[in-house]
Amino acid sequence: MEISRQLKSAAALQIEAADKLRQEPPKAVRETAESRPAEKLQLDQMQETLRQMPDVDLKRIEAIRLALGSGGIDTDARSLAASILTYHTGSDS
Asked: Is this structure's pTM higher than 0.90?
């Protein structure tokens, strides 16, 4: 039996297959991107708008801080618990 240098190991074949998969997107992804260019453009625009927005609304935080400091927001535990229950149960009673 002769060992040839032309044979590739299983590991080498797996690496080549993985590289090929990484290089080209699956057929379904290609077809979706090609058939919906307007939707992709709209999605890209929305993502760019989101990137430009600040992560935190500093004006809102400052307003809440001022309200807490001046007593404008009720911090009574029973009242807060009732508000949380009302919000999560969807009832106004």
From this structure: no
